[in-house]
Amino acid sequence: MKQESGGLYFDDSGRCYLGGSAGPEVVLVIYSSDSQLDRYFTKVPSSHYAWLFGKNWGINCHDGEPTLCDELQGELGGTVKRASDEPPRTTTTTKMPPPMSAEDQEIANTAKRWLLESFGQSRDGSFKDVPCLEEDPDMMMFCWVPYINDITYSNGVLYLQMDADWTQQPDGARMVTAQNKVRNLFQRGPGPRLVMDNVRAVQSVDVNGVTRSDASLPG
Predict the structure, then answer these.
(1) What residues pair up with 162 in beta bridges, in sequence order?
(2) Tens digits of per-residue pLDDT, 109-134?
(3) For residues 33 and 36, what is the distance between their CA atoms, to the nearest angstrom?
(4) The 50-54 sheet, strands edge to edge
(5) How far apart are CA 104 and CA 102, in angstroms?
(6) Cβ neighbours of 66 (radius 10 Å)
(7) Tens-place pLDDT, residues 174-208
(8) Is the pLDDT of residue 146 over 70?
(9) How far apart are CA 94 and CA 195, in angstroms?
């Protein structure tokens, strides 16, 4: 078993080959709550996987034969979930915020400068220059920073204008990761007072002006 790090929706993980290196590779994730599990299952790319879930654990069987999860279930128990079991997703199309006032612009600019510095860039730099780590969709690890085109603000919401599309994967997971990570950066920073006093949520906006969810800040 090769241990991996925790992720956005799980606490720990690892991967191994069943029956030796020639066998199918499976991924084991450990989670702490049913809600954490539900979020993980609905966010992972769904075109080619099946999962076996038990109490606080899940096994990704997608690299094996179609019956692999069923065979493991016979030995370990648990519940098999496949992509076809995923509940339908909805998309909420929002009107883009009105032109920013001078105050809104200052909040957006302050957030943008602070985030750029957090990623080792100059205050007037570009998110496009932030290098990407290797992506691993199975581990919910997605490159997201260079996909930010700009940052805007309106009515308590900080918008990440992203070069991505909610209807495509891994773009959808990438944008969920982006809004959650930015929210976490501000909370742990903590972020600039002007931002923390005004921003109540972070939302990723795709190339079509669509948002799906938000990452709320306390307050």
Answers:
(1) 148
(2) 999 999 999 999 999 999 999 988 77
(3) 5
(4) 2-4, 12-17, 25-30, 57-60, 50-54, 79-82
(5) 5
(6) 10
(7) 888 899 889 989 988 888 999 999 999 999 999 99
(8) yes
(9) 23
Distance CA 141, CA 17 (A): 21
Distance CA 188, CA 131 (A): 22
Joined together, the tokens standing for residue 71 give: 């065979």
Contact at 8 Å (CB) between 164 and 206? yes
Over residues 89-98, the mean pLDDT reads 50
Report CA Rg, the chain.
19
Least confident span in 55-59, 152-156, 158-162, 199-203:
55-59
Tokens of 58: 């899940």
Q: Which helix (H) or strand (E) holds 160?
A: strand 157-162
Q: Any idea of the CA torsion for 16, 19, 25, 27, to the nearest 10 degrees?
A: -40
Alpha-carbon gap, residue 138 to 187, rounded angstroms:
27
Q: Which amino acid is at 26?
A: V
Characterize the bridge pairing of strands 50-54 and 57-60. Answer: antiparallel
* Residue 128 CB neighbour total at 10 angstroms: 12
Choose among 162, 215, 164: nearest CA to 186: 215
